[in-house]
Amino acid sequence: MNAPAFKVCMLGDFGVGKTSLVARFVRSTFAPKYLTTIGVKVDSKELSSPRGTLIKLVVWDIAGRSALDALGANYLRGASALLLVADGTREHSLSVALNLLMQSRSALPDAVVALAVNKLDLVERWEVAPTTLAELRRTLPVFETSALSGDGVENAFAEIAARLQP
Amino acid sequence: MSAEPALPSSVETYLRTFFLQRTRPLLLSFGPDWTLRDVQGDASLFGIDIDAADGGTRELQDLFIGLPLNGDHDLPFVELSSGRSAHIHLIADGAGFHLLLLDAEDSRSRQRMQQQLGNEAVLAGHEKNKAISRLREIRSELERQRATLEEANALKNALIATLSHEFRTPLTSIFGYLHLLDRRGGDGRHALQALTAIRRNATYLFTLAENLLEYGRGESGALLCAVAVDLRALGHDIEEMIRPLAEDKGLEFSVRVDADDAAPAWFDEVRLRQIVINLLSNAVRYTTRGEIGATLTWRDGRLHVEVRDTGIGISPEFQASVFKPFNRGGQSGSKGAGLGLSIVRRLVEQMHGTMTLDSQAGSGTRFVIDLPPLEPVAAVAPSRGNAALWVNDREVLVVDDDPDIAQLLEALLLDLGFRVRIVTNAAAAIAEAQRLPPDVLLIDVEMPGLSGNAAVYQLRSHGYRGRIVTLSATSTVEARDASLRAGADHYLTKPLNVEQFVSVMQRVTQPQ
A124, B482: Cβ pair inside 8 Å? Predict the structure, then answer.
């Protein structure tokens, strides 16, 4: 029997590391060179839930953009979860991620949402204050991640999987 | 209303050929439940293996999770696992549907090239702005440091120039009178005069030496040591010390102590004595006739110190500068190293007190100081005997990957009376601090894997409110600022300065 599959969309400004997070999560790899995504790339990975059941996450790595246009909205249809991604070294990218959440909420009112604040390996250069994330944690799960080292990546997807568990 | 005019057949043929060449369409026709029924076009171009068990369509099925298959869908620029990009259309057809894949590789490459340049320019612009801002900060810091160094150099020159004179004068006097005593013996009026002069000059040297030591400690000063001060005994000592100097100049002199408050007066006795002696020494030095006096009043939990004289006074325009080191502004013809008042002000500020100066040129000077008492326990310098009281059973979580450093920190902390837990990496620190939050987290910054700063950041962003001290081998301002931004309260550098370490641990365990 196939594991139940759920569509998870990665949303965030360009250059925040969405593609790198997917590469780390699905293939345990990291490419240091930035290559912008055009359109969408879809990957999948099966995870074991704490209860031992399998769940398949089909991860849509959607090109970064500051607003969801008609094309972007097309990609979101059918999504069960959103993983918002921001870059800790660019505070503006956090606003972009939260704006994308607000824009997508009308189309996906019931989607599971988590926030990954990426580039933890560069924490010395972060502009996002810890208190900001402490506040955000009151409303949604937040993970500090590093696609480079892998810190926090598995936890972010595992949290989504746990919340999607039928 | 006219119908759309038909294109000439040659144009239609051209367009059809052009479109097919550009898009190289692949049409996959499915029955219900993704049963592949027909294939038209080159599936291998898109990396689809039609001969695979699932018809190579598993990846395509994933694209339509959560979407109804009885309606049309359009997914532009989908990167397939083969790396090729396609526009994918789902077209419903009765009980089944078709998937039409149109090659988008060329247009994606063009778009990516443009987008990449634009995105990289924005990212580079962001980095450039940050770098410029940082450079401005560095320039400003360098200018500040240069000004500080110039000031320090000027003070050093002033110190050397002043001390060569200030030490030689009383020493010359002492040696001269000792020579007289040696020659004339220890009896008579001359001997008494000589002893008085020796005492006066020795007292001056003592004050000068004390001030130099205090000045050498820098702005931060040494830790205050609170003891219950016997104010009457202190007043008596000071009176004994200053009276011969005052009487030698024919001045009236008195020290009065009003200790109305029955509660013990917790102060740093050495520093308090230094304040009063400095003010009285100045008063003697700058008064040629009349009187000088000091009053110490311990009332309502405050110590009020007043020192007054009928000396030459200080003009209003010089009243601010007399508190600067090596400055004897306005008191023309004066003697002294010019350290006394600057040190008095520093000590008063260190004790969180206030000080006012009331003076007019030619009509005397009056200094008034108001001091709150020190905390009897928290301000006590740590030692084995009182350490447990001082830290009040606090716990420190030590995080260091170097076992030698971890053990050293543990030994120091145990000696101060802390309870200590040790972990050896940042991830364990996060878990341990969340499981059982310590009063203080003492964490190394440079550790393999997750850095100490990253752990600090994550703990703060999870709401950890305990105190955090980071320890690092990097002693730059940038490194310190980064650590403080991540959420640390204090930043210490290696090699560890034990005195500074103790001071910081004292501060972080005081009530916030």
Answer: yes
